[in-house]
Specification:
Layout: E1 16-17, E2 20-21, E3 30-33, E4 41-42, E5 49-50, E6 52-54, E7 77-83, E8 88-94, H1 100-107, E9 111-116, E10 126-133, E11 136-139, E12 142-143, E13 146-147, E14 150-153, E15 162-163, E16 166-167, E17 170-176, E18 179-188, E19 197-201, E20 208-213, E21 224-227, E22 232-233, E23 237-244, E24 254-263, E25 272-276, E26 291-295, H2 301-306, E27 308-311, E28 318-323, E29 328-333, E30 342-347, E31 363-368, E32 376-380, E33 385-388, E34 394-398, H3 404-410, E35 411-414, E36 421-424, E37 430-434, E38 443-448, E39 464-470, E40 485-487, E41 494-498, E42 502-508, E43 514-519, E44 523-525, E45 532-540, E46 545-552
Parallel strand pairs: 33-39
Antiparallel strand pairs: 1-2, 3-24, 4-5, 6-11, 7-8, 7-10, 8-9, 10-17, 11-14, 12-13, 15-16, 17-23, 18-21, 18-22, 18-24, 19-20, 19-23, 25-26, 26-29, 27-30, 28-29, 30-31, 32-34, 34-37, 35-38, 36-37, 38-39, 40-41, 41-44, 42-43, 42-45, 45-46
């Protein structure tokens, strides 16, 4: 779910003249300037530029200048503000990296008396603005007549513009028990052109809001400003997100300064922190699973539950509340949902926090239930079958195409059968199992546990158990001699008979249908017969019949 921020943009009257913007400036508590007073300069493959880099790839760095980069995971800057007991505000700028060049730039931004507030309710409080960016941040960039600013090193090295098909961005996250009212934002027009557009992203609606258009293309000292009097960060955690809409040229801008007033934090309207399953999910929710919504605040439980609706409707709905890490958690249970069906959950603006504030925007979440789990539809021998030949193959048919490795691990027999081999039919719905001969006159139990998964990685919902009894002597074993054999078993392309003077070979399905007959040959081509278990009937020159169960794959 999106973090909340109120960004109300009322366009100021910009007068673009002689490289400047003229408007009335109100007083402000804090002015933070992103300077490079020592004119620090580190080279790159692009010819060199001032400032230090923080985060992103190492492309463009010249050999031996690895200190130009912060390690992965340390690509952020925290502007930590502390309000003293009399209202004086101190700034400490911190980054996780200990690189001396990066720290050197940031240390020049520290200020023990960067401003002051008069509201006694703010005394003793602290807050942070945490800066991150899409690519490597360029801190203290140098331009003609201007040593400072923050850009994004991407396609065009030092400014916020397009990165190929992607839009570069930079954002400040407010963390702390205060609010911020911006007065103005300083920027430097480092490339310009009519296509260059500075914009802010509204995190309530994902709307892209232009704040500055048609940058003039000249390089300016830091005297250009965006009137930001209508930008507010009033909640405990808000985000101010800078980007551009220019995707076709090299125009762009960098930030020079932030000027703002510190105010009391406003009560925060509730928002959805997360849902289970998440929006758009189609691979996790079983029809028996509950739906879970976690909010970021304490909620008016009755009003909020009534503001949540399902389409298609669910039956016998029950709402249960608990307390989570971020706020209240609503768990919704109901009768089993429909298999493989898209559901839409709408949370209207009637969702109400315990502070009396409604959710700012309606939220719509969709999810798709999982297909019906696979199950065993038949076995051979059938459940409770008797007089099963001790050399009989075993088959298990499933309702859906299965992942063979999961099924083979899920199959077991008691008493244990050893030297198991598995053959699957073409669509992986039936597995044929061969082993060494079973014990005569014995009961065997076959088990397929829930580890068996279909092709969508959905497990069986419950294990399947079947049982059968072996016989002492079986019809398929009659008249056998010690030399007689039909091999290989399983057979794939060719089936051969050994130990007989063969007059004919007939192949029958288990239902009794004759599928093939060969005269005067001990070799039978079975490549045209589908995978399965078959009865092979061999007759010798004395018209004596020999029968065997064989798996053909």
């Amino acid at each position: 779910m999106k973090k909340q921020i109120i960004i109300k943009v009322l366009f100021a009257c910009f007068i673009m003249a002689l490289g400047g913007v003229v408007f009335k400036v109100q007083a402000q508590d804090i002015v933070v300037e992103f300077l490079n007073p020592e004119d620090l300069d580190y080279g790159s493959s692009n010819g060199g530029f001032n400032g230090v880099g923080l985060g992103g790839s190492r492309s463009g760095a010249i050999p031996g200048s690895e200190e130009f980069w912060a390690p992965e995971g340390e690509e952020r800057v925290e502007f930590r503000f502390t309000i003293g007991p009399t209202g004086q505000v101190a700034l400490d700028v911190w980054t996780p990296t200990t690189d001396p060049d990066i720290v050197g730039i940031l240390d020049t931004w520290d200020n023990a008396a960067i401003g002051a507030v008069t509201n006694a309710d703010l005394f003793g409080k602290s807050f942070s603005l945490i800066l991150t960016a899409e690519s490597r941040m360029q801190l203290g960039v140098g331009e003609a007549g201007n040593l400072g600013g923050i850009g994004v090193r991407g396609k065009n090295q030092r400014r916020i513009d397009d990165e190929g098909a992607n839009l570069e961005w930079m954002e400040f996250e407010l963390v702390g028990d205060v609010g911020i009212d911006f007065v103005r934002i300083g920027y430097n027009d480092v490339a310009g052109g009519a296509a260059a557009v500075a914009v802010v992203k509204d995190h309530d609606t994902d709307a892209i809001i232009p704040i500055l258009d048609e940058i003039d293309g000249a390089v300016h000292p830091p005297e250009l400003y965006i009137d930001a009097a209508d930008f507010n960060m009033r909640y405990f955690t808000d985000i101010l997100h800078f980007t551009t809409t220019d995707t076709s040229s090299a125009e762009g801008y960098k930030l020079w300064s932030l000027e703002f007033n510190i105010v009391e934090a406003a009560p925060k309207p509730p928002a959805v922190s997360s849902t289970t399953p998440p929006n758009g999910d189609s691979i996790t929710l079983a029809v028996t699973d509950d739906y879970v919504i976690e909010f970021d605040a304490s909620m008016d439980q009755a009003a909020t539950a009534a503001a949540v609706s399902f389409s298609p409707a669910v039956a016998n709905r029950v709402n249960t509340w608990s307390v989570g890490d971020a706020g209240d958690v609503l768990t919704i249970s109901y009768d089993d949902l429909e298999f493989e069906t898209w559901y839409t959950v709408v949370l209207s603006t009637a969702v109400l926090g315990s502070n009396g504030l409604n959710m700012l925007e309606a939220d719509t979440v969709t999810f798709k239930t999982l297909p019906e789990p696979p199950k065993v539809v038949s076995t051979f021998p059938a459940n409770l079958a008797s007089d099963v030949p001790i050399d009989s193959p075993i088959s298990i048919e499933f309702s859906k195409s299965m992942i063979d490795t999961t099924v083979e691990k899920a199959i077991s027999f008691n008493p244990e059968l050893t030297d198991l081999s598995f053959v699957w039919n073409e669509d992986n719905t039936t597995v044929y199992i061969s082993s060494i001969e079973m014990v005569p006159s014995n009961m065997y139990f076959g088990n397929v546990d829930v580890g068996a998964m279909d092709e969508f990685e959905i497990n069986m919902s419950e294990p399947y158990i079947f049982a059968f009894n072996t016989s002492i002597a079986t019809p398929v074993e009659n008249n056998k001699t010690s030399e007689f054999a039909i091999y290989p078993n399983p057979a794939k392309d060719i089936l051969q008979v050994r130990g007989l003077d063969v007059a004919s070979v007939k192949i029958y399905s288990l239902s009794g249908q004759m599928l093939k007959e060969v005269q005067n040959s001990a070799v039978v081509n079975v490549s045209d017969i589908e995978t399965g278990i078959y009865v092979i009937d061999v007759k010798d020159r004395n018209n004596i019949s020999y029968k065997e169960l064989i798996v053909i794959e």
